[in-house]
Amino acid sequence: MTHRPPPIHNTANGWRASFPALQHRDFRILWFGMFFSSATMMFQFYAQGWFILGLAGSAGLLGVLGVARGAGMLVFSLWGGALADRMDRRRLLMVTQSAAICVFGLLSTLILLDRINLWGAFALIFVAAAVESMDGPTRQALLPHLVPREHIPNAVALFTAAGVSSYAFLPPMAGLAIETIGSGGAFAISIFGHAAVIVALLLMRSDAVPAARPGENLVKSIGLGVQYASARPNVLWVIVFSLLLGTLGFPIITTLAPFWMKNELGLSAGGWTLMGWIWGLGTVVSTVYLSIQKSGRRHGRMVIISIVGFAGTLIVFGLTRWLPLAALMWALNGTFFTANMISVSSLLQSIVESRFIGRVMSLRLISGACSQFAAAPLGAIADGVGIGRMVPAAAALLAFCVLGPAALAPGARRLDPQDPDGGSAVEPVVVRAS
What we know:
Elements: H1 15-18, H2 25-56, H3 59-84, H4 89-112, H5 118-142, H6 152-164, H7 171-203, H8 218-230, H9 233-248, H10 250-254, H11 257-263, H12 269-291, H13 299-319, H14 323-351, H15 357-385, H16 387-408, H17 410-413
Helix pairs in contact: 2-3, 2-6, 2-7, 3-5, 3-8, 3-15, 4-5, 4-7, 5-15, 6-12, 6-14, 7-12, 9-15, 9-16, 11-12, 12-14, 13-14, 13-16, 15-16
């Protein structure tokens, strides 16, 4: 029977006290790999949006980019979560990262050779999203194997910091790359990030085999994951709130932002990526603050507060055309969005058993898939009534849909763990000492 090491009573000062998860060797290695990867992914993110915008030319067709992403995530996310709960999670991540290198290498080559059209790009983006849908839950499911339970909230915050910190530093460089070497060249740069994660995984020593029985039917395994989440109100409401944020808010940030920046604020690719840098500065506030918090009991409250804050800043952003105020709201929007990401992941890690964490995280990823699908209707509405009307209206609806259940349903506002230990029982997992 596997067992966790005894709790670590950290008496160190400095970074070891503030970031205890980094004391563990394998987590530290993977975190540095992800940090480098996120830096190069910024080139991929902006190249994708700007390339499709150049081919499409409208918010509606730009929304189809979200459909391509969402379809890939929706079709494969539950399978990815089930695989993460039955396979060696480290090896599965190596497979997904290798597949990403192949997909984006092909996409980059076709763009550089001018041998790809809009629908060919959508097809490759669909495949890339399918790979991502298996990669995301697996990364989260790997955490209990790398750090002890009391360090998981810190590890989640640091994982998120590695993923979003590049927003604070790299967007201007991504814009410069797009304007100098083109979207294909920017895609090529992102390949090095996937390679860095593979190297980090090869250097790790921890066993990452979950407790699920390898012979268990995959479809039955998915059904058990859905049953597990639906039977626990706090898990279910976290997923529902993530779905609402993804459907009514996230598409505006990830898919429709290029159209807004270009047509409402009059910005070029460089200006758009500069606004991305400003949004990224806001993410730093959340990652620094939440990563040094030692208690996870307030994550449930933060889930709701962060969504309402996200919606409020997006309303003001959608109503103003004064660039300084728009930039301020954009920065605060990044702060609230990242706070939500960290709070949701930390909360689920504390209330979900490790053997189900891959499948529960994949259910959360389905909300991301739905958010990509929502980009198309939101883009079509923007084409019909104007994106200036659509953005604040969607944000106001998001705030209403979250505050309503939180006010009326006790289960929707009592998301934090209720047991004395700060979470539901989680079966022990071996964490190799650093």
